[in-house]
Every structure is written in structure tokens, then in C-alpha cells.
Design goal:
Blueprint: H1 4-31, H2 41-69, H3 74-96, H4 107-135
Helix pairs in contact: 1-2, 1-3, 2-3, 2-4, 3-4
Length: 137
Amino acid sequence: MTLPVTAALTAALAALLLLLAIDTVRSRFRTQQAFGTGDDQRLISASRAHGNLAEHAPIVIIMVALLEMSRADHMGLMIIAGTFLFARVMHAMGLYMKQKEGGGPPLPRALGVILTWLVIIALGGWIAYMLMGNLGS
């Protein structure tokens, strides 16, 4: 396979997305809420966990694929892909946890958000660095 890191990341994220979609649909059946989320906290959490993954995964998959096609360091890509997958699992778990008294998101959710952003920054920087190196060639 030409892009094994991208393929593995995509397969893992697809499985996670499907699990979150199934939970969202189960919550919709439970609440009989066809659209929106109503006031049901579990449906809100399920819907946002699914939606948030769907919002962030495509750009990360594309950036990993671009780097892999550019022959970026294979081990580095595996580490950053694993970090993103871990971040998204933590974020989803955190969305299902009860909000702390006095504000602040649960630790897994905060960790998931921070790691997701760091991965996006790192991948974007890595792509920019590789582009700058290719401009001088």
C-alpha cells in the first residue's frame, strides 16, 4: 500500500466515527428526537462527539496523506497519527462525562482539544517546512 499511515489512521477514525454515529442514533431513538438535540444531555454529547470528529478528521487525514506522499518521516507520521487518534478518543470520552462544578471541561475533553490543535499545528508546520525546502530546489 502506498500510504500505510494514512490508511491505518483513516480506518481507525472511520471505526470511531461509526461508533459515535451509532450512539447518536441510539440516543435519537431513545429520545424520539429526529432533529436537533432537545434538552437531552446524552444526545447532545453523542451528537457533538460525532460531529466534532467529523469536523476535524478530514483535514488531518489530508495533511497526513500529503506528508506521506512527500516521503516525510514514517515514524514521525505514525506518532502524530496515533496522537490524533488518542486525542479524538479522549475528546469523545470527555464529552460523555459530567461537567465539573464551577465550569471547566472534564480533563479528557480538554486534553483531547489541546492535543488535536497541537497535531493540526504540527502537521501544518511540517507541511510548510517541507514546502520551504522544496522552493529552494
